[in-house]
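TL;DR need structure tokens for one chain.
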Amino acid sequence: MTAGGRPYSDVMSHDSEAPVLPVQAFEPPYYVAVFTTVRTQDMSGYSETAERMEELVKEVPGYLGMDQAHTPGGLSITVGYFRDADALTQWRTNSEHRAAQKRGRAEWYQSYSLHVAKVERSHAFTQEES
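>> reply
TL;DR here they are.
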């Protein structure tokens, strides 16, 4: 899976040399889950759990991809794309994902917000290289 067009491990390591591309535009309607966090200082176990969640979400029929961005101040935004509400529900109710959510609230997140929306319009642009 990629995050913003980059392998998730590149995003986690902040590899500035990797090309950055957003997830493509899909034919609407589809759903997005926007997860915005401010992390705590203790991130022990986070990377391993994030990698496992990446493996799991890819198994959900209807999962389309993910974009992710981090600010130097600690704000992270993850946008997950799902073909339909059933795919999103399957992800939300996955038992391993639920356990990771619980651990996130207890250890990794100072705060977070989650916004779910149905996308009605979508388009993309990529400048061609000269």
